[in-house]
Write a structure and sequence with these properties.
The structure holds two protein chains of two kinds.
Chain A lengths: L1 H9 L16 H7 L5 H17 L10 H14 L1 H33 L1 H14 L8 H8 L3 H25 L3 H9 L4 H39 L4 H10 L3 H29 L9
Helix pairs in contact in A: 4-12, 5-6, 5-8, 5-10, 7-8, 8-10, 9-10, 10-11, 10-12, 11-12
Chain B lengths: L1 E11 L7 E11 L4 E5 L6 H8 L7 E7 L9 E4 L11 H5 L1 H5 L4 H14 L15 H14 L4 E5 L7 H18 L2 E5 L3 H7 L2 E5 L6 E6 L14 H30 L1
Parallel strand pairs in B: 3-7, 3-8, 5-6, 6-7
Antiparallel strand pairs in B: 1-2, 1-4, 8-9
Classes of the chains: A mainly alpha, B alpha/beta.
The complex binds adenosine-5'-triphosphate and magnesium ion.
Chain lengths: 282, 264
């Protein structure tokens, strides 16, 4: 008994400074978390894939070696088809995106500001939003015929909803304290709108724009798969149909790069202009 | 400016319930250049009263009259908020300049004026910072600078120092007193702190529970300029006890009334 007690007394716990090395993320971690570092895992997979193909463990009929795909990409690029396809697709994405997002922001802000507009439009959105927009493609083909227009409209429709909903939420969730402060300072309703409510809604509006941008890409590629005669999506689809798998992978890589570019650019803009949100919006 | 609060009443409509009568027939007069503190039980309607004085919402009946020679160029009142109400996407200097901006003062000029007020509050080094980069004490200094920059006749302060730590509060109280002694504005200052009220005020009004009215109007006898040393004055303890008793009565009565409402 007594020995146990004395043993307990001998015990000393020291809370001292941290040891060197365990203060925050390590250097290696920071490198990996950087935009450059994020390419490392992707690159590793590609290398393993290449080695696997060369060793004969991976069936090149379905998974052609990355270097072969790269060669295919180079050939496509030199034929000149690729650049024009990319350009067509990019134009469609931007047009559809603008067509969807600009009215979406106007409608969303109006819904947030004017209860009447919300009461009327909210049910319409509630019905349309859950419908997979791709399901509307046959209808759009009937209305707009073949060619680029139905694809652009599809992208517009898909990208409308997140921007509208986010713009509305951004306006509705404005900080009432700031509105009261401005009123006490003598602000008019217009001044409150332009100096408090709309700037306060910008982070949410931009979060919507980011979602819409991704969806515009999705809409155009899906439209081109199903109904396009040109554009990078249609090219991918054609290579699948004629079973030129390396070429298909090459164009897929182009689409992936487009998506990556879109995400990176919009993220940069967000970090640059909306850094005051203290991590409230992603 | 002399502020005359004449029989004002205010109730809030609550869906599917009796309206909440918050202020009823409340009258009080604040003389020009006077520093008046208001204490009262939680939820009795202090902020509601302040909002009526600050033009945020009109009283249901009664009137607030501002009279006297108008000396300042700005709005009649500016509010200093407990949670600062600084605009997060603006720098401190642009926050402080907002009243001038709303009045259409050109950018250079309003920034110069705002900088003057930042200097008064000793925070000119943070002019370009965003509010969220500053401590609570620094933010409230910016809140006071903003109120001063709008050049009001009356400063309305709603528990402005409740959210900062005790040491910072003492500093802010002294800074506010020295600013007030220089600017000679009429000040209405809501607080939960009896000691704070006795340190700052010429007069302390004690409010009752809802519907609230003035149950005590106490003149604070300490000479100015004051420092934190007034607590050593023997009358300080006496007045503190007196105010505490009145506040306790009001709070207990308010709690009883609420309990009766709930059980009814
Ligand atoms: N817009 C509103 N609608 C309905 N009830 C409200 C509204 N604003 C305040 N109240 C209620 O009115 C009462 C008085 O509120 P007020 O904020 O004026 O009290 P207060 O004395 O400032 O309280 P505190 O000590 O918490 O600051 C409270 O019971 C509050 O819940
Ligand atoms: Mg309050």
């Amino acid at each position: 008994m007594s020995t146990t007690i004395s043993e307990k007394h001998d015990e000393t716990v020291v809370y001292g400074p941290r040891k060197r090395g365990d203060t925050g993320p390590s250097r290696a971690f920071r490198v990996m978390a950087s935009p450059f570092g994020s390419l490392v895992p992707v690159f590793t997979i590609l290398v393993l894939w290449q080695l696997g193909s060369e060793a004969g463990w991976i069936d090149p009929t379905f998974f052609p070696a990355p270097l072969d795909c790269l060669a295919a990409l180079r050939d496509l690029a030199s034929e000149g088809d690729l650049a024009s396809s990319i350009w067509i697709t990019v134009q469609r994405i931007l047009t559809g995106f603008a067509l969807g997002v600009v009215p979406a922001i106007v409608v969303g802000i109006a819904m947030g500001l004017v209860p009447w507009v919300k009461v009327i439009i909210d049910p319409v959105i509630a019905i349309l939003y859950p419908i997979p927009a791709v399901a509307m493609l046959p209808l759009l083909l009937v209305i707009f015929g073949t060619g680029g227009t139905p694809i652009i409209v599809l992208a517009g429709i898909i990208s409308f909803f997140p921007s509208a909903v986010n713009a509305m939420a951004g306006v509705q969730q404005n900080d009432q304290r700031l509105v009261q402060m401005a009123r006490n300072m003598g602000a008019s309703r217009t001044q409150i709108l332009w100096k408090i409510v709309l700037p306060g809604a910008l982070p949410s509006i931009f979060a919507g724009i980011r979602l819409s941008a991704g969806l515009a890409l999705l809409g155009v590629i899906a439209g081109e798969f199903l109904a396009g005669s040109d554009g990078i999506g249609s090219l991918t689809w054609q290579y699948w149909q004629v079973y030129q798998i390396s070429n298909m992978y090459a164009t897929l890589a182009v689409i992936a790069a487009m998506g990556f570019g879109l995400t990176t650019v919009t993220l940069r803009v967000q970090r640059r202009f909306f850094n005051w949100t203290e991590g409230t919006t992603r | 400016m002399r502020v005359e609060i004449d029989q004002i009443s205010k109730s809030y409509r609550i869906p599917d319930a009796e309206p909440l009568r918050v202020v009823e027939g409340l009258s009080a007069t604040i003389e020009e250049g006077e520093f008046v503190c208001i204490i009262g039980p939680s939820g009795c309607g202090k902020s509601t009263l302040l909002g009526m004085l600050g033009g945020l919402h009109p009283p249901d009946s009664g009137a607030v009259r501002f009279s006297g020679r108008r000396t300042a160029s700005g709005e009649m009142t500016s509010i200093v908020w407990q949670d600062y109400a600084l605009i997060p996407w603006r720098s401190i200097v642009d926050n402080v300049a907002i009243a001038l901006e709303l009045r259409g003062v050109p950018k250079r000029e309003r920034r110069d004026i705002a900088m003057e007020h930042l200097k008064t509050m000793g925070i000119e080094a943070f002019a370009k910072s965003r509010p969220q980069q500053l401590s609570g004490g620094m933010r409230q200094r910016a809140g006071i600078a903003r109120a001063l920059a709008s050049d009001p006749e009356v400063l309305l302060m709603d528990e402005p120092f409740a959210a900062v730590d005790a040491q910072t509060r003492t500093l802010l109280q002294e800074e506010l007193l020295s600013v007030w002694e220089r600017h000679q504005k009429t000040v209405l200052f809501i607080t939960h702190g009896i000691e704070e009220a006795l340190l700052l005020a010429d007069r302390v009004l004690v409010l009752s529970g809802r519907p609230t009215r003035v149950v005590e109007d106490l003149t604070v006898p300490f000479a100015r300029p004051r420092t934190a040393d007034v607590v050593q004055d023997p009358r300080f303890a006496e007045l503190k006890t007196h105010l505490w008793e009145r506040l306790r009565d009001a709070t207990l009565a308010a709690e009883w009334a609420e309990a009766k409402e709930v059980s009814a």
